[in-house]
Structure prediction request, 501 residues.
Amino acid sequence: MNSTLETLKMRLAEVVDLQRASALLSWEQQTYMPSGGAKARSEQLATLQGLAHRLFITDEIGDLINDLKNVSLQWNYDTDEASLLRLVERQYERERKIPSQLVSELASTTALAQEAWALARQNDDYSIFMPHLQRVIELTREQAECFAPYDNLYDPLLDKYEPGMKTSEVQMMFDGMKEEIIHLVHAINSRSDEVDNTILYGKFDIEQQREFGLRVAKQFGYDLNRGRLDETLHPFCTHFSIDDVRITTRFDSEFLPSALFGTMHEVGHALYEQGISPNLDRTGMDTGVSLGVHESQSRLWENLVGRSRPFWNHYFPQLQMFFPDAFSTVSQDEFYRAINRSEPSLIRVEADEVTYNLHIIIRFELELELLSGGLHLNDLPAAWVEKYKDYLGIGPNNYADGVLQDIHWSIGAIGYFATYTIGNLLSVQLFDCARKEIENLDADIAQGNFEALLHWLRENIHCHGSKFTPGELVKRITGNSMDAQPYLNYLRNKYSEIYKL
Ligand code: ZN
Prediction:
């Protein structure tokens, strides 16, 4: 191998190691760390992330990239080498613009803000979190300003999670979807008696829930020799290498869907990370290409597989055996309709497929206003309530179910929410492709056989890691760019059947 490339890879591996060690500390903070550990942990994260950043933006790495650019003209676009150079050059240019000191400060500020958020949420007291959020927003704005000039201050933030995506594109997409979704919500509301989901509330033993969730996870293809499941306030998936991909979930002993679909969702993320080609290990390409594409994988398994009729053909009899008191007299059709009940609600992570994207649009619009300075933090809770009433017809009467419900702002993840909707749209576009290319996909799923689907996802998406941009990847697979229409069609068809619209 080219020795310059070899040196570059060695340097990148060191940066990746530091980032992964930092991710491990974050995972531990959310799973097992006593809250008293927050201050020390914030310092450790600041040190590690600052160090990783300084190591990455060195002149040496810049010189290595430049030296390789001439040689790379002979490399085929699709090769690992050419892809690595494209990605590193892009990231290098981006990161060079941000001072390492700011990276460290954001890391320590958000580690503390996260604890404050958890406490504020527990006590339903926004004032505990507000000063932390103030600081997070100031630093985030400072970070975005490093990328001037831009069309919109929000562009660089969005670009971090969804490379290449512009705020104006998201705005246009959301404006196009909003009306149609609200129309569907109203149509469903007028027939709300069609579906009852009281069977999903009751007593559901947590050990039984865990066992059932793990059974499904393993059958989807999640390798537990290279993964594990823990419990957290806010479920997530994280990885420290291709061979160590962990998920968390949140059990509710009185409401089955939380952990059931939450686990399927995180497994979808984990399958992506576990499926990346080992050749990309420790290069920085060994992770999902964007949050939107990542979310397409979690939503595909959670909704397009997990909330489908074929899936429950296979699993409902098993679920009945796990929870005979709750389901022995319930029909499969009744259960299918219950888990797909659509109703305006306050909590995003528990929202159904129809209303979910309205929760995202609300957050996206609020973030834009916060960043532009048009919305003051004192007025944020009220603005939240107002938007919920506007779009969903209901509003929270406490902070925990309102402005404090998500962890994202506390961890500095501003510019992130839009990727959830991007993921929903892509999940349908990609699943439509898989369905065309895999013979009898529904019949496979109805037998609890996911091999062909996982294989298709591995070949077309997972194995590539971050080799291609999200736009390139979607184009390679679907022949098109991202499009909201297939998703809207899917919603309309599915819910017209369930609600007899
Ligand atoms: Zn997700």
In short: The chain has a mean pLDDT of 96. The beta strands are 227-231, 237-241, 244-249. Residues 3-31 form the longest helix (29 residues).
